[in-house]
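User: Before I run my own analysis I want an independent prediction to cross-check against. Here's the chain; please return only the structure tokens and, at the end, one sentence I can use as a sanity check.
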Amino acid sequence: MPKGRSTFAKRQKEHTRQQRQRDKAERRNQRKQEKTAGSPDQLAELHEHAAEQAALFNLGAEDADTAEHSASDRLGE
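Assistant: Structure tokens:
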């Protein structure tokens, strides 16, 4: 009888180990899917931020050009 109990315990232990492996693999797959699913949103957000930065940069460049023109206009007067 003791031999049967140890076999049962080993079988239960192995079952638990396999279940943990399956759970771990499932969590890993979910993280991968979330990462790839979240990617387009992040890309859109980055493009929007880049466009805002470009607009600010161009706005700054226009202000600098305007200041240069007004300074040269004053010198010409």
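Sanity check: The two ends are 112 Å apart (CA to CA).
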